[in-house]
Every structure is written in C-alpha cells, then in structure tokens.
Inverse folding.
C-alpha cells in the first residue's frame, strides 16, 4: 500500500474547516436538484 493513511488524515484534518462549508454547499445543491 503506497498510501500513507496518517498523511491523508493530516491533510483531511487541515481541510476540515473548508470541507465543512463545501459539504454544506454540496448537500444544499443536491437537495435543490432532488
């Protein structure tokens, strides 16, 4: 496995703030389309 899970987790942790806003936008768009 060439994927470093710890590194990925660290990246995800750094993006948590941005992703939370992004996911809210995605869910809103999905709800609007549905």
């Amino acid at each position: 496995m060439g994927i470093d899970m710890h590194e990925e987790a660290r990246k995800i942790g750094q993006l948590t703030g941005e992703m939370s806003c992004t996911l809210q936008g995605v869910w809103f768009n999905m709800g609007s389309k549905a």
